[in-house]
Amino acid sequence: MKFPDPVQIAVPFFILLIIIEMVAVKRGARGAYDWRDSATSLTMGMGSTLAGLLSAGIVAGLAFWFWQHRLFDIPIAWWSGILCFVLDDFAYYVFHRTAHRIRWFWASHVIHHSSQHYNLSTALRQTWTGFISLGFIFRLPLFLIGFPPALVFFCAALNLVYQFWIHTEVVKRLPWGLEAWLNTPSHHRVHHGTNPRYLDRNYAGVFIVWDRWLGTFEPEHDDEPVRYGIVKNLPTFNPLWTATHEWVGIAKDVWHAPSWKARWMYIAGPPGWTPDGSRDTADVIRAAWEQEQAQAQAAE
Amino acid sequence: MNWLTLVVLPGAGIALLVVLARWLGFNTQPVLTGPDEARTIAHDALVAFHAEQAAIGADARAALVAGRDGRVALVRPHGDRWIVRVANGARVTRSGDTLTVALDEPLFAPVQLKLATDAAGWAARLEAKP
C-alpha cells in the first residue's frame, strides 16, 4: 500500500497559515515576528528537508532490516494505524526527552529551540544534523514489533504536521477538555520556555498524556509569560552557525577535557554539564530558582 | 523530486514570507526604557543573578548590569530581542567615555557603549573576576 506524503501536502497550508498569523499579529493578535528570525527559521526548514533526503535511504534500509526481523505480522488496517500512531507518538516522547537530556542529541535538537520567537515559522526551524545525532533509532522498535515501515513513516509525518500548528501564541487555550490530553499551543509554549519553571517540560508530540504520566508536565501559568529561546541565546542569525554551534561546542569541550570521564560526560551528559560546574544544567537552573523562591517565601 | 521542487519553490516561498514580514514592519530594533529594564533582562537571563547597578549606553541599545556576586552582565540587542552574557574577562577598550566590549565567542560582535558616567569604573569591573 502506498501512502501519500502528508508533509508535501501540508507545505502550501504551512505558508498560508504563516501569512495569516503574520497579518493577525500585525493587527494586534498575541505574538511576534522578526523578519531576520523568520528567515533563519525558514532556511533551517529547507535545509532540514534537503539533509533528510540525503540520509533517507539509510534510514529506510535500517527500517526494513528491523522489520524483516519483526516479532509480529501486523497488517495495514485502521486499528493498526491508530495503534501505530499512538506508539509512534510515545517513541517521539522518548526521543524528545532524550534530545533535551543528553548533549549529543541536544546538539541536533537545539536548533529548533534557538529562536527567541514562538510563531509558526519557528515550527519549521529544524535540524540539519538529525541523522548524525541518531534520532531515528527511537523509531526502530516499532519496526521490530512488526509495524510496516510505510505505516510508521506515514504516522511520523502526520505527527510532524500536527506539531506545526501548535507553534503559535495566537491560540491561548483549546476548549472542550482538549488541553487534558492533547499537546496544545499552550503546553508547547511551556516547552519552548527558558524560565526555570518551564525548562525541560512538556516533551509531547501529539498526546500530552505522556508528560502527565511520566511527571514532566507543567501547565502554562498566565502570571508567568514564557521567555522563548535557549539558556544562552545565539548572537547571530547565520543558519550555518545555528545548525552547528552545539557540535562545535562539543568538539571544543572534548578537545580540552581534563579526563576521559569528562570527555564522555561532555557528549553523554546533560547540556550545560562541566567537570567544574562552571556552566549550568537545566537541573541546576531549576534548583537555583526553587531555592530563590523558597527564600522569597520565607522572607514574606 | 528535482531542483525545482527541492530548492527553487521552497526558496521562493521563503523569500515571499521574509519580504512580507519586512513589509509588515517586523524589523524593529529594541531600545532599553531604563536601568530597571536592563536589570530585569539580566536577572531573567542569568542564573541566580541579583542585579544591582546598571549603566545604559547613550543610544539605549546596550547596557552593563553589575550583579551582587561581582558578575557583570552585558545586554545587547539581537534582532528585536535581547541577548545577555556574563562579560567579566572580556576584552575592554576605553576611549573617553566609550567602552568597547569584545567577548571570546564566535559571531558575537563587539559592543560599544557610550556611558554617561564612570566608564573607567565599569571597565575595571569587567576586568575583575567575580
UniProtKB/TrEMBL annotation, chain A:
Membrane topology classification: Multi-pass membrane protein
A Pfam short name: FA_hydroxylase
GO function terms (MF aspect): glyceryl-ether monooxygenase activity; iron ion binding
Keywords: Lipid metabolism, Membrane, Oxidoreductase, Transmembrane, Transmembrane helix
One annotated GO biological process: membrane lipid metabolic process
Domain of life: Bacteria
Segments traversing the membrane: 6-25, 46-68, 74-95, 142-165
Cell location: Endomembrane system
Main location: membrane
GO CC, alphabetical: endomembrane system; membrane
Name of the protein this chain belongs to: Sterol desaturase family protein
Natural source organism: Glacieibacterium arshaanense
Automatic annotation (TrEMBL), chain B:
Domain of life: Bacteria
Protein name per its UniProtKB record: Uncharacterized protein
Source organism (scientific name): Glacieibacterium arshaanense
